[in-house]
């Protein structure tokens, strides 16, 4: 049976006889990788473009249509040491990218207008204290209006739209006072210019927009990057299925290209990507992801299988009844999404600040106007002073205080291997004071390891590894990986649920259950570590037993100690057996642990801790953790986790070490500290500036200096969040 | 002060040219990979193609 790969789903025409594909690449992290990949791929003849995007960890390729098979790029990248996956941009990501570009365009327009209006304002400010003619001043003011009004109308769109949406929903947000401030400042300046007044605030209004757009853009850019990484993860998890394209020919195609009625091949160790019915073959399937039932189910002709179930022993042919969006797994994912949205919205720091801000500022402006009228000033002068208060309090620094820190902190976390899934994750993680770990796949590595590899003769171990390559069973995969085997044994036969056998140099070799290899006696003599499982290998009459288990993450102990040192409570809640959990808890010196816990028990425990006022960080993977991840104050998942829990977790981390958990907590605590500091800086600025504005002595010069001064101060302070990632454990 | 009639439009035109250049660079995707661009600036140039040795 021949297997071909079909990438036509991902290839698109770039015009002029050129085809384009985007690949998500794992492990690109520096300039060296970038140059290596680009050179390596450009060396293939007929490639017209090979460009790495380091931010999104992707590579864009273009070649003369019809000359190359995209599979060749993936092979070439494999040779260079990178794993690549074909990639399809989600519509959500397209929208984020478009929004990001729009904000950047607004920022460009606003910055252009600010610079030019400033160029006209400075002569007015210096002219006002020397010998400028009123006609010249009016001319400069009108020119400023000519630049500032259209620029503000364009660049202010993000704020005006959002403010309008909020107002039509009869609520308020930060953009309402911003829009009011900008519109009033521009309107008053036009009126003042008509009346040949000395001061106009065109520069202040447009500068305000520029600074706010910087904050808005940074915020959006962070969201865009998160979305891009999420898209890559989806591609790395690329769900493909082996579809029959001929009676004996199968092609590895993306799930999106599979339709009901197609027939797919499901090999042992593969997770089913579609819903369907078995039409040929016999096997056991693990449906725990769907039903929670951990006992294997026998699958034979007529048995329904669902997306997400794992085929354990034999090869199956499945007739597809539903694919992709219509599967049961997709349905469960949607239900979970709904449950998540129902989770009471966390009140973000920025929201709390803006809720206080708007009424206070508007009341101050109103009182200023009334106060001056009562004190005998003309309505005109009183209103000008009131508008000056609004301008000078416009939340420039406030708008930058949080997004700048978030951007810098998320960049630092990104470098430490932590990705943010939720915008408010930093704030919530910083508050966490109690950590609940799941054991399997979280404290332990998700992959199985061969524990007694050193006791087996090298050549035997290698032979076992090569034989293991012929099986898809997870244990066999672990043996093959540990032995570093590359070339499979020729003529290997897999016996469903038993093992693999082959004949090498006239001697039969077998790998599988002890009974399959005739090694029961030897297996019984091995003192069994509670977590380990056993696989036997026989070569003729020689018998060997390999113990395979999940090892603790290499730095787990140091991480637990580091968490303790930070005064964070730690416990293990695991669904696993008692001996297994006890062994891990003892090894890590965690006194509080519970074994055999059901998902409902986990939620109950989290609720109990919540009632006591603890902020729980849940670190776990696996489908049955998804509800408790959603129930906790904040959640983290290792990236190898089943993807459903990834969607639920607020943060995900990469790689073998557990250290990212500590790094993320440290970085978020530092970030929250800096956010608070920035808010106080912004408030402090207002406390100084508002009395000056109320007293009516604010000139446009003072407003410009005060606003830019406070904004730059806040931005510089935010940069300090960068160092957070360097102090791991 | 009549010079302003020339200087002010000139200044605006220069600023406008800057804006147009920015919008062009945005459209041609130069802000899509800021991390990568930071490294490309200091990366070594492509090694020159080795000329075939003549014998």
UniProtKB/TrEMBL annotation, chain B:
Q: Does Transmembrane count among this protein's keywords? A: yes
Q: Which NCBIfam families match?
A: ccoS
Q: Where are the transmembrane segments?
A: 6-26
Q: Give the gene name.
A: ccoS
Query: What protein am I looking at?
Result: Cbb3-type cytochrome oxidase assembly protein CcoS
PANTHER family named in the record: FIXS PROTEIN (PTHR41532)
Pfam families found in the cross-reference section: FixS (PF03597)
**Protein source organism:** Bradyrhizobium niftali
Keywords recorded for this protein, A-Z = Membrane, Transmembrane, Transmembrane helix
């Amino acid at each position: 049976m021949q297997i071909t790969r079909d990438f036509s789903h991902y290839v698109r025409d770039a015009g002029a006889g050129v085809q384009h594909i985007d690949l998500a690449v794992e492990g690109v992290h520096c300039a060296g990788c970038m140059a290596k990949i680009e050179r390596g791929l450009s060396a293939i003849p007929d490639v017209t473009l090979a460009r790495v995007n380091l931010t999104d960890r992707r590579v864009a390729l273009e070649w003369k249509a019809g000359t190359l098979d995209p599979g060749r790029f993936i092979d070439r990248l494999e040779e260079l040491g990178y794993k690549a996956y074909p990639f399809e941009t989600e519509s959500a990501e397209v929208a984020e990218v478009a929004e990001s570009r729009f904000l950047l365009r607004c920022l460009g327009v606003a910055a252009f207008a600010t610079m030019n209006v400033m160029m006209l304002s400075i002569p007015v400010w210096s002219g006002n204290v020397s010998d400028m003619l009123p006609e010249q001043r009016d001319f400069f003011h009108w020119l400023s209006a000519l630049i500032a009004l259209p620029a503000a109308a364009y660049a202010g769109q993000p704020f005006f739209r959002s403010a309008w949406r909020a107002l039509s929903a009869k609520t308020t947000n930060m953009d309402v006072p911003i829009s009011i401030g900008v519109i009033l400042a521009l309107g008053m300046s036009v009126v003042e210019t008509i009346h040949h007044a000395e001061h106009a605030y065109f520069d202040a209004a447009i500068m305000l927009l520029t600074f706010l757009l910087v904050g808005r853009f940074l915020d959006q850019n962070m969201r865009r990057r998160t979305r891009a990484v999420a898209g890559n993860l989806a591609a790395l998890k690329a769900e493909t299925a082996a579809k029959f394209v001929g009676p004996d020919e199968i092609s590895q195609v993306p799930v999106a290209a599979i339709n009901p009625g197609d027939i797919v091949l499901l090999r042992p160790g593969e997770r089913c990507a579609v819903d369907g019915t078995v039409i040929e073959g016999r096997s056991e399937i693990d449906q725990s992801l769907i039903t929670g039932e951990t006992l294997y189910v026998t699958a034979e002709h007529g048995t329904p299988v669902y997306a997400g179930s794992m085929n354990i022993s034999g090869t199956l042919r499945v007739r597809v009844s539903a694919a992709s969006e219509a599967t049961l797994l997709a349905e469960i994912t949607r239900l979970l999404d709904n449950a998540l949205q129902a989770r009471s919205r966390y009140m973000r720091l920025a929201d709390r600040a803006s809720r206080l801000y708007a009424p206070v500022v508007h009341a101050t402006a109103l009182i200023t106007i009334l106060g001056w009228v009562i004190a005998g000033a003309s309505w005109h002068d009183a209103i000008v002073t009131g508008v000056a208060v609004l301008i000078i309090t416009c939340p420039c620094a406030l708008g930058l205080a949080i997004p700048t820190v978030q951007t810098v902190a998320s960049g630092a976390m990104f470098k430490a291997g932590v990705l943010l899934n939720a915008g408010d994750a930093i704030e919530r993680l910083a508050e966490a004071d109690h950590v609940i770990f799941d054991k399997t796949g979280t404290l332990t590595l998700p992959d199985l390891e061969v524990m007694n590899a050193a006791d087996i003769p090298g050549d035997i171990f290698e032979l076992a590894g090569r034989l293991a390559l012929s099986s898809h069973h997870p244990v066999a995969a672990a043996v093959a990986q540990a032995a570093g085997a590359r070339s499979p044994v020729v003529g290997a036969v897999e016996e469903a649920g038993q093992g693999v056998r082959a004949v090498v140099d006239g001697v039969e070799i077998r790998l599988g259950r002890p009974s399959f290899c005739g090694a029961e006696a030897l297996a019984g003599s091995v003192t069994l570590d509670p977590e380990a499982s056993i696989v036997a290998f026989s070569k003729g009459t020689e018998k060997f037993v390999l113990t395979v288990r999940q090892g603790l993450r290499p730095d787990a102990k140091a991480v637990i100690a580091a968490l303790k040192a930070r005064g964070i409570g730690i416990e293990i809640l695991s669904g696993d057996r008692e001996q297994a959990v006890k062994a891990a808890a003892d090894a890590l010196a965690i006194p509080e642990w519970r074994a055999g816990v059901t998902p409902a028990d986990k939620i109950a425990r989290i609720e109990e801790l919540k009632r006591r006022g603890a902020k729980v960080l849940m670190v776990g993977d696996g489908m049955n953790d998804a509800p408790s991840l959603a129930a906790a104050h904040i959640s983290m998942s290792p990236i190898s986790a089943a993807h459903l829990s990834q969607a639920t977790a607020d943060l995900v981390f990469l790689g073998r070490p557990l250290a990212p958990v500590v790094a993320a907590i440290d970085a978020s605590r530092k970030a929250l500290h800096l956010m608070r500091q920035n808010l106080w800086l912004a408030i402090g600025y207002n406390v100084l500036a508002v009395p000056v504005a109320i007293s009516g002595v604010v000139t446009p010069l003072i407003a410009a200096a005060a606003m830019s001064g406070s904004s730059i101060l806040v931005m510089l302070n935010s940069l300090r969040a960068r160092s957070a990632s360097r102090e791991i454990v | 002060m009549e010079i302003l009639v020339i200087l002010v439009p000139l200044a605006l035109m220069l600023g406008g040219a800057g804006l147009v250049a920015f919008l062009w660079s945005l459209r041609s995707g130069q802000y899509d990979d800021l991390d990568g661009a930071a490294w490309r600036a200091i990366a070594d140039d492509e090694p020159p193609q080795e000329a075939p040795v003549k014998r």
